Amino acid sequence: MSQFIGRTKKSWPGLASAYEEISAARKRLIPCGNYSITAQFNPRRTTNSTAAVDEESIRLRPCFLCTDNLPPEQQAVFYRGEYLLLCNPAPIFDHHFTIASVKHKPQEITSSLNRLLQLAWDLSPGYAVFYNGPACGASAPDHLHFQACPAENLPFLKTLSFLPPVKELSSVRFYQGQQIDRSIILLESQNSEAAAREFLRLFTIIQKILDINREPMINLLCTAACGYLRLAVFLRAKHRPAAYFASGERRIFVSPGAVDMAGMIITTQETDFNRLTGEAVRSIYREVSLPEDITAKIINAL
Ligand SMILES: [Zn+2]
């Protein structure tokens, strides 16, 4: 993977600059009571954070993940006949990949889950793979894709499995995030098929409890290490917090996806980076996450 980035940087000066910037990016540890998060100042993510993801805007723009529209300098690795592994042109980490379907088809998890789990195994143990739902973080909701980054950059997952499991069913253990202002259910298993089956059951339970037919708003973060697959499901109530749409001083440009929910909050504006407080982070997390009472209903129905 390092060689692939090195090779692409050589033929794409813009990518080399992006990686130089990310290695020097300012970061700030923000205590939030029971936990801490890291804020990263990353102006290159402005396009992603402010992406218009409504249907009309998506329909009118050329899809930036379709092969014909990729930058000419972009190199790709063909993955299992269905995806292209690409260097993300606006990295958050020193290794940051987008794994895009070769076909233009909507971001949707039930039909692509097995590939996500396979990808986590294929990139194990060094990488975490993540998925942003079409309505909560994906800047290309019309083109199926995942992302991957070094797992050590998101240590959050490890902390969850130190908790006692809330359920154990058909070789899958379920854990629930506790007192971290987010609604998180973690599935852990040595068996990919069982993990996929239990995730799809969880998916249906969420739909039933929320009384919806569409894909529930979720972000997924998946790692595979020491023979175990860990799949964290962030249950969301909304995509962007009210502060994102506020005017003047009250505006905070934070548009949470899987990485932000996992404790690395990306700020594209320097003022937001400097003034983001633990209380503001907690408030954003609570606002965009499914409320505790609904999460409790989901856990009970497992
Ligand atoms: Zn496309």
In short:
This protein has 302 residues and is of the alpha+beta class. 33% of the residues lie in helices and 24% in strands. It is built from 12 helices and 13 strands.
Largest sheet features: 10 strands, antiparallel
Instruction: Identify low-pLDDT runs.
Output: none
For the record, give the distance between the C-alpha atoms at the N and C termini, rounded to a whole number.
38 Å
Helical content (DSSP H or I, runs of 4+): 25-40%
- CATH H-level homologous superfamily name: ATP adenylyltransferase
> DSSP helix count?
12
CATH topology: HIT family, subunit A
The CATH architecture comes to 2-Layer Sandwich
Oligomer: single chain
Report the principal-axis shape: globular
C-alpha-based Rg, rounded: 18 Å
Hetero groups in this structure are: zinc ion
Q: Quote the beta fraction.
A: 15-25%
Order of helices and strands: HHEEHHEEEHEEHEEEHEEHHEHHH
CATH class: Alpha Beta
Q: How many individual domains? A: 1
Protein architecture, described:
The chain is α+β, with helices and mostly antiparallel strands and 302 residues long. The protein has one domain: HIT family, subunit A (2-Layer Sandwich). Helices cover 33% and strands 24% of the residues. It contains 12 helices and 13 strands. A 10-stranded antiparallel sheet has the order 3-4-5-7-6-11-12-10-9-8. Strand 11 and strand 12 form a beta hairpin. The structure holds zinc ion. Zinc ion binds next to loops.
